[in-house]
TrEMBL record:
Protein name: Glycosyltransferase family 4 protein
Species in which this protein is naturally found: Corallibacter vietnamensis
The organism's taxonomic lineage, starting at the top: Bacteria, Pseudomonadati, Bacteroidota, Flavobacteriia, Flavobacteriales
Gene3D superfamilies: Glycogen Phosphorylase B
Lineage: superkingdom: Bacteria
Key words of the record: Transferase
Length: 425
């Protein structure tokens, strides 16, 4: 017997970036497991990134329902269009470099819109969906955040209709890295924690993307928590020729605090000490890069080796992943980021290019890279081993044998992950 599942999400094509991919792929494969997804999205969203090519991935026969949303970013742009757009992307300047307008935007965002700037969508969504759920006999409602205000929609619907509610956390709530930068008052901080606890204790089932987040949430709730990571899907992008240069590419945003100066210093030393490396090396940034990162690179004299491509479509990003000699993955060096598993990791893993990752100790990313044999993971104080590994990869490039040799990737395929989700529904 087929079931229906109502999926409440903010990010949906033509939204770009990693947040849209998770549920786009779940929706693609759920019908294979006798579940018909119905997707509820805003009719007039304010997406910081747009990728029209993702519209081609929306299943032809999926039911999509929409409701208007009022968002403060449109009004904030009257103060500063540039700063409101970067804040909505999550690009936050170092505190000592923040302008008065950026400080004001962050304070208002953190204290007047709790849990986030989409909280105004909660009430009209609950009113609309109550009738829809009853009319179409929907038993399961799934909310996915961030934005975590969408979980409040699930909370109200469960109370009123007693539906089976699954809360999917793509990122943590109160412990996510940027939370401390929102200039929260004690009252606002307490409200965030109270709402988080209410959601975690009320949902019938909780889904997280990492083991670290599961451990964190288990301290707050005794509700069942399942780990379903992000994953990779079959793509139809023709494999390009490998770059002739020794290219290292980072795909995705490089925020202010995601700035591994140890890596830039190592690259500077290799360029200085090895003339052939200096001739062959290129560094590619595909996505938004903070001024802080670019300044660090400039100060070390590496700017001539950098190629900035800005935000590109998902298909173009896949091309960069497949043609680059080495793929860079960087996370902030903090205990709070141990649970963050960038969606691009899984596409990196099937690109057959080695991954060079830097991040905190005991992270989920470190474990996944080790178990799949897809690259090397370093801490921010691993200067010498990082340097020797890049030189080792460079020598493999020179002899034409640089390639990753992955194992056990199948469990991270989107279809395998959707099967796990279907069992929860």
């Amino acid at each position: 017997m087929r079931k229906k599942a109502l999926i409440i999400t903010y990010y949906w094509p033509p939204a770009g970036g990693p947040g849209v991919q998770r549920w786009l792929k779940f929706v693609k494969y759920l019908p294979d497991f006798n579940i018909d997804p119905i997707v509820y999205i805003p009719s007039n969203p304010s997406y910081p990134l747009v990728d029209d090519t993702l519209l081609d991935d929306v299943p032809e026969h999926v039911t999509i329902i929409k409701q208007a949303i009022n968002e403060p970013y449109k009004f904030a742009s009257l103060l500063s269009k540039k700063r409101s757009k970067t804040v909505s992307k999550g690009i936050i300047s170092e505190e000592k470099k923040q302008s008065l307008i950026e400080r004001l935007l962050l304070f208002v965002r953190g204290n007047f819109f709790i849990p986030d700037a989409r909280v105004g969508w909660v009430k009209p969504s609950v009113q609309y969906l109550q009738t829809y759920i009853s009319d179409y006999n929907i038993e399961t409602v799934i909310t996915t955040g961030p934005p975590h205000s969408l979980h409040l929609i699930g909370l109200h619907l469960q109370k009123q209709l007693h539906v089976n509610w699954i809360a999917d956390f793509r990122d943590p709530w109160t412990t996510i890295g940027y939370h401390k930068q929102l200039k929260l008052t004690k009252k606002a901080s307490l409200k965030h924690k109270t709402l988080e606890k209410q959601v975690l204790q009320a949902a019938n089932q909780i889904i997280v993307t990492s083991d670290v987040t599961k451990q964190e949430f288990q301290l707050i709730t005794d509700k069942p928590i399942s780990v379903i990571t992000n994953g990779y899907d079959v793509n139809h992008v023709q494999s390009p020729d490998l770059d002739s240069k020794f290219t290292m590419a980072h795909i995705g945003s490089l925020l202010s605090k995601r700035n591994p100066e140890v890596l830039w210093q190592v690259l500077k030393e290799l360029i200085t000490e090895h003339s052939d490396f200096a001739t062959d090396f290129e560094l590619h940034f595909v996505g938004a890069v903070s001024e802080n990162v670019l300044k660090s690179i400039y100060n070390l004299g590496l700017s001539d080796y950098v190629n900035e491509h800005g935000y590109v479509s998902h298909n173009e990003a896949v091309v960069f992943q497949k043609k680059s000699q080495l793929l860079i993955l960087i996370e902030i060096d903090s205990d709070e980021t141990r649970c963050i598993i960038p969606g691009k990791l899984f596409e990196y893993m099937v690109s057959e290019r080695p991954i060079l990752a830097l991040g905190p100790k005991a992270s989920d990313v470190e474990q996944i890279i080790k178990e799949t044999n897809t690259g090397r993971y370093f801490y921010y104080n691993d200067h010498e081993s990082l340097k020797s590994t890049i030189l080792e990869y460079y020598n493999q490039y020179k002899t034409g044998v640089l390639k990753s040799h992955a194992i056990g990737l199948q469990k991270y395929s989107r279809k395998s992950l959707t099967k796990k989700l279907s069992e929860l529904i």
